[in-house]
Amino acid sequence: AASTATKTASVTAPTPGSSFTYTVTATNSGNTPLLAATLSDPIPSGLTATAASASTGTCTVSAGQVDCAL
């Protein structure tokens, strides 16, 4: 299966202490289902993640990264 992930931020230049949202979109462009897919995204230095969610599956925040089982 062919898959891609894209990441966008809700603001281009956040100010110190402000909140913003990263959105990561995973896409299966293949012709077969992805089974037991995972996505890991490291949290950039200087930032703190407070929550993570998935439209399908579950996500956790720990050890400086977001991990999702999709």
Structural account:
The protein has 70 residues and is mainly beta. 0% of the residues lie in helices and 41% in strands. It has no helices and 5 strands. The protein has strands at 3-9, 22-28, 38-42, 58-62, 65-69. It has a 3-stranded antiparallel sheet with strand order 3-5-4, with no helix packed on it. The protein has a two-stranded antiparallel ribbon with strand order 1-2. β4 and β5 (65-69) form a beta hairpin. It starts with a strand and ends with a strand. The mean pLDDT is 92.
Please supply descriptive tags for the structure shown above.
elongated, single chain, mainly beta, two-stranded antiparallel sheet, 70 residues
> What is the count of β-strands?
5
For the termini, the CA-CA separation is 15 Å
Compressed to H and E, one letter per element, the order equals EEEEE
Low-confidence stretches: none
Q: What radius of gyration results from the CA coordinates?
A: 14 Å
Going by helix content, strand content and strand pairing, the class is mainly beta
Q: For the largest beta sheet, what order do the strands appear in spatially?
A: 3-5-4
Largest sheet features: 3 strands, antiparallel
Give the proportion of residues in helices: under 10%
Overall 3D form: elongated
The fraction of residues assigned to DSSP E strands is 35-45%
| Number of helical segments with 4 or more residues | 0
